[in-house]
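Protocol step 4 of 6: structure prediction from sequence.
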Amino acid sequence: MSTSAKVRQGQILDLAHTSGLASVEELSERFGVTASTIRRDLSKLTTEGKIARTYGGAMPLTAAVVESTFRQRTKERTLAKTAIGRAARELVHEGQTILLDSGSTVASLAHELRDAQQLTLATTSLVVVEELAEAEDVHVECIGGTLRHRSAAFVGPLAEYCLERMSFDTVFLGADGVIPDAICEADLIQTRLKEKMLSRANQVVVLADSSKLNQRPFHAWAKLPSNWSLVTDEAATAEQLQPFVHAGVNVIQA
């Protein structure tokens, strides 16, 4: 291997530690080499056990991310999540049937829906159910399954089976990380369920604060459709939003 290749692979590994690493195309442009050269670099680093390939990039194996609990997440970026919930509320209309995912940001939307009229809402989230327990004008359908304690929500084949028998005007999804064409979660059980949710809705809206944009904290991914909306907070920079705008995502800043 040439010295330049060693240097480049070292720089790629440094990027993986600091930012979760960009796409092959972005790395190719950054280092001024072909995409196939970057793929060979990534393959060598993977073989050496230094990185793990993810959807759209790579992560260092030494930088394991521990998934926080729902209770922990409710204490993080609360103002941003409240703003996102209020902005997302404007996308919900009387007479609709909507689906709410789990997660603290989606729970903020549920809080804003307590005064909704003639709304049918389905959810896998225990927290959403609790938020709407006294909202008598909201018809709530609870989607059961296997309780995932860290999410305070249901997952698994029973939840997937329920979704097969329902359809929705809009689904509102949470995410641990989001890139222009996919969302990231801690495990494949969650991404499988989210893909089922996506397939049952006419419109897809992802609720994610700016800290989750272009992030790849885990290795499980759910592919997003070509037309979807992102609701994020005002702290998101133009640089963070540029990949989404370039991909044709409808971006709403709260």
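Step 5 (inspection) to follow. The first strand starts at residue 51 and ends at 54.
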